[in-house]
Amino acid sequence: MHLKSVALGKSVSLNIVKELTKFRLTLSVVFSSFISYFLGAEVVDYIQLSLLLIGGVLIVGSSNIFNQIIEKDLDKLMSRTKNRPLPKKEISQSLALFIAIISSLLGIFLMYLINIKVAILASISLFLYVAVYTPMKLVSPLSVFIGAIPGAFPFMIGWVAATNSIGIEAITLFLMQFFWQFPHFWSIGWSQNKDYEKAGFKMLPTLKKDNSTSAQILFYSFWAVILSIIPFFGLTGKLKLSLIGLIAVSMLGFFLIYKSYNLFIDGKNENARKLMVTSVIYLTFVQLTFLFDKILNS
């Protein structure tokens, strides 16, 4: 199927749009907002939830398009990205830019219909990812710290959409996903280091696959787990975790730390890839644990 652009007189397949927006990744990001909305909502407003999900897909998708436009020449140099639509010239840069601008503006508008706080957070997230994180990858490994901010916003935004409040609960959700970013993205940077070096991306904290980098991965893994169990102790307002939830999250955290420790002991790419997979499983099931814990204890 092809979509026709009236403004530019060109057509583009849905598959190309899916690749530009990194649609599967986009859905996984929006999933965290979906979960946190239910964590914050006392009564589910399905119109509000729909605005959150559609707006989230548009904003995250557009940020990925902007990213690929900026990095289109560098993507040609890397094995993992050389077959993206822009390097292969399957879509013009002007059409990709048109789609990104329209999607981002519509997404922010939908977020504004929820509440102004959500719209502001979403706008900051888009700006940081596109205008700061993306170009900074060529300059400094601190880019990962910057990128972790918009990467953690979705888990926060869902709660703010449901409650119209940025309190201790929303901040805790943000920190849970913020610290998770480091073992996740540094494990990718570790296993794909040669590819990143071809494009000049500085993804690892020491720029090397050394013990200092793996020690930092282990350190942030600990903090990701610690932030995830704090709600059990009643310090995070309405965001709570039962004893059963604590046990489940702790078990998941054990596997994340274990895989991080394995990489620290033996820095093989295989261990980095295993950590990356484990980090995705960890985050998904921690979020689901919080959701089911609320349902079972409400």
Question: How would you describe this protein?
Answer:
The chain is mainly α and 298 residues long. The chain has a two-stranded antiparallel sheet with strand order 1-2. Helix 5 (93-114) packs antiparallel against helix 6 (116-136) and helix 11 runs antiparallel to helix 12 (269-297). The protein has 12 helices and 2 strands. The chain has 2 domains: 1-166, UbiA prenyltransferase (Tetracycline Repressor, domain 2); 167-298. Helices cover 74% and strands 3% of the residues.
Give the SSE order as H and E letters.
EEHHHHHHHHHHHH
Query: Any idea of the CATH topology of the largest domain?
Result: Tetracycline Repressor, domain 2
The rough form would be described as globular
Question: How many β-strand runs?
Answer: 2
How much of the sequence is in beta strands? under 5%
Question: Sheet bearing the most strands, described?
Answer: 2 strands, antiparallel
- What is the share of helical residues? over 70%
User: Unreliable segments (pLDDT under 50, ≥5 consecutive)?
Assistant: 1-10
Supply the helix-strand structural class. mainly alpha
Radius of gyration: 19 Å
Question: Total number of helical segments?
Answer: 12
CATH superfamily of the largest domain: UbiA prenyltransferase
CATH class group of the largest domain: Mainly Alpha
**Biggest sheet, strands in spatial order?**
1-2
CATH architecture of the largest domain: Orthogonal Bundle
Report, as a whole number of angstroms, the end-to-end distance.
Answer: 45 Å
Number of spatially distinct domains: 2
Averaged pLDDT: 95
